[in-house]
Design a protein that fits this description.
The protein has 256 residues and is mainly α. The chain has a domain of 153 residues. Helices cover 68% and strands 0% of the residues. Helix 3 runs parallel beside helix 7, helix 3 packs antiparallel against helix 8 and helix 7 packs antiparallel against helix 8. The protein is elongated.
Length: 256
């Protein structure tokens, strides 16, 4: 069982077992703090999760689009420089000068540095959102107690604690990926990197965008990333129907 799968709440009871269950007391935490009675904690964790997912997608886009483009520019320019050096008198379809190729290589190197800076900012945001979720759980524990925070489903099956605990593993994977991307960037920027090494670095960089590269430790983590996203789409599907959204239920400023 994967780490995220282990965080899943209990399976939804069958209709028969639900009918056989005795009615809950009006003072039961499950009825008092159900998904049909949204609190400020519903809204806050919803906002955190939405921003977390956006930040992850933004990270992936920077790695896949900006990073690959800059890395390829370095490999191409360095390869053409090697070709000129090995066959200085052989005619080519076009004749770039060493100066123009060095300029392209310099631009690619600078673009990779910019990419790492962008990833730093995304990583900082993801870390801040993870901390905010942890603080929200602590606040809920103090204000609402363990039943609401750790046992009561917010929407479908996951409690607030389940949502919060699902974020640190993803942050940890991104931290490892960032370290690996920094290493790959150094290889791609180096003028001594061979064509074969540059090509391998580009392929490894691309796998990082799909959570399957060396920074993530293999394909299983890519599956966990997709599993988390699928879980969010199921668990939080009720948002689109108005659950956890006070305005959709017409209760305005009702809070926790």
């Amino acid at each position: 069982m994967s780490r995220l799968a282990s965080l899943r709440g209990p399976s939804t009871p069958s209709p028969a077992s639900a009918r056989a269950s005795p009615p809950l007391s009006p003072t039961s935490p499950t009825t008092r703090l159900s998904a049909l009675d949204p609190t400020s904690y519903h809204r806050k964790i919803r906002a955190i999760l939405v921003e977390f997912e956006k930040a992850i997608k933004d990270w992936e886009e920077v790695v896949l689009m900006d990073g690959l483009k800059a890395g390829k520019a370095c490999v191409d320019a360095r390869t053409e420089l090697d070709n000129l050096a090995s066959k200085p008198h052989e005619p080519f379809a076009y004749s770039p000068t060493p100066g123009s190729l060095l300029f392209r290589l310099s631009n690619g190197q600078a673009d990779l540095t910019v990419v790492l800076g962008k990833l730093d900012k995304r990583l900082s945001k993801i870390a801040s959102l993870t901390d905010a979720a942890d603080s929200l759980l602590l606040e809920a524990m103090q204000a609402k107690g363990p039943s609401f925070s750790q046992a009561t489903p917010l929407w479908t099956t996951w409690s607030l604690s389940h949502f919060v605990q699902s974020l640190p593993p993803l942050l940890s994977l991104l931290l490892h990926s960032h370290s690996h991307l920094t290493h790959l960037s150094s290889l791609l920027q180096s003028q001594s990197t061979s064509f074969e090494q540059g090509k391998a670095a580009l392929e490894s960089w691309q796998r990082e965008a799909y959570w399957e590269g060396g920074g993530f430790g293999g394909e299983r983590n890519g599956e966990e990333r997709r599993e988390w996203e699928e879980t969010m789409s199921v668990e939080v599907k009720m948002w689109e129907l108005g659950f956890g959204n006070d305005q959709a239920r017409g209760v305005g400023g009702r809070g926790g």
